[in-house]
Amino acid sequence: MTDPGPSPAGPKHAGRAGVPEIVFLGVPIARLDARGAADHIAARAPGQPFAYVVTPNAAQFTRLNELSDPRFHDAYDHAWLRLLDGQVPRMLARRLFGLDLPHAAGSDVTLDLLERQIQPDDPVTLIGGSDELRRRLIERFGLSTVHLHVPPMGFIRDAAAVEACVDFVLAHPARYVFLVAGSPQSEYLARQIDRRGGAVGVGLCVGSALNFAVGLVPRAPSWLRQAGLEWAYRLMRNPVGHARRVFVDSAPVLLTALKARRDPARYGMAPNATGRG
């Protein structure tokens, strides 16, 4: 499904990737589901200048709308493709604004790429992760060239460490560059690579997607994901580590959506995007 057709509220326009987009909570979202996104990414010819993909979820909508983070805005403004990751934002879009946005979770896009699109001889570069992740990727998906650079903890605050990441990407040209340093670090880094120039391939800011794909981290059952309850599954498995992400980083998206319903134009949405469409 590369374009699910007109939405009852909000105009469409083509973004940088040549894909129709619709603005939701200030973010132009590509109208691609996971398979359509994987196909579009894989269709980009090898050797083209570096461009990157971001996958907004509830926490990222919150960072963009409720926090003052110019670097994150800049990273999103220059992204090649923005794919809707979160089921909760998707539900809010449908119920409050009448927008039927396709779901393209970074984990689903990544798995589709690995299973259908990435060929054994396609070079892949990882920024973040582990030797075990690299080993499992090679073993499970038959990849022949996987370069790995693991930056130190807190690297994004160290200019030299950031430059080392950028240098590694330039020194190891790849068709696919997986940035798995967590958000917002991955998005900041993607923008730095883009700004430097000279790199090639598609950068993918996809969080824990590779860990899910190789079985290092279990993913919620599909019925929970479809119900928009993957956050609850992660919270149950790791209540201490995931509580801040759920209740502090993500929950304010509800406030953002309510404010956008009162004043959709402020969030770049069509004046009639009020859910009555």
UniProtKB/TrEMBL annotation:
<keyword id="KW-0808">Transferase</keyword>
<dbReference type="Pfam" id="PF03808">
    <property type="entry name" value="Glyco_tran_WecG"/>
</dbReference>
<protein>
    <submittedName>
        <fullName>WecB/TagA/CpsF family glycosyltransferase</fullName>
    </submittedName>
</protein>
<dbReference type="InterPro" id="IPR004629">
    <property type="entry name" value="WecG_TagA_CpsF"/>
</dbReference>
<keyword id="KW-0328">Glycosyltransferase</keyword>
